Amino acid sequence: MIQLSWGSFDEAWPQPFENSQRMWSYDRTVQIEKPLVTVPWRSIGFYALTGNSVITYKERLVKETIVEALEEIREQNPRGRILLVADNYGSHHAKLTQQRADELGIEFVFIPPYSPTLNAIEPLWKDLKREISPTIFEGKDHFREFLSETFLRLSQRLSFAVDWIETFLPDIQVLQ
User: Fold this and answer.
1) Is residue 90 situated within a structural domain?
2) What are the C-alpha distances in Å from 135 to residues 19, 40, 123, 157?
3) Rounded distance between C-alpha atoms, residue 37 and residue 143, angstroms
4) Domain range spanning residue 91?
5) To which H or E segment does residue 129 belong?
6) Quick one: signal sequence residues (predicted)?
7) Model confidence, pTM
8) 88-127 pLDDT, tens per residue?
9) CA of 57: how far to CAs of 44, 70, 76, 135, 173, in Å?
């Protein structure tokens, strides 16, 4: 039997001051005050529906750092093919990225342009940002640790991908 790791791949830039949590009061005096510390790195995630999820951090999102992320995904999923459902970000299509993906046994499946709802990682990013909202972080290291733990915990839930699985699972089974 061929082993296949597959999941969604995407980049995000969650910040320690995310405030998607809202508060309501009669006199509108209640406010959430959080230190506005920004982090320079972006998060690159692989939400594995089979295999091991991965989150990594890069200061720039260019083809070289996408290749580094692919290498980290392969390191965490050492056997079998890897299928990445991804958007059409330019660095995903770059010749260097595609060559290295081929060498690593990673295949991209690109969703149509302007259809983020087809990428199962998007609801995971949304929940991650929701969990950031009420938390106050001691510093960048604490924030990064929180992001990693939260992403990996959330990625164990298939609920983010239920619609995707129901729509596309028959096609994926054919690929195995």
Assistant:
1) yes
2) 10, 19, 19, 22
3) 10
4) 5-14+36-168
5) helix 121-132
6) none
7) 0.83
8) 999 999 999 999 999 999 999 999 888 888 888 999 999 9
9) 6, 12, 15, 20, 32
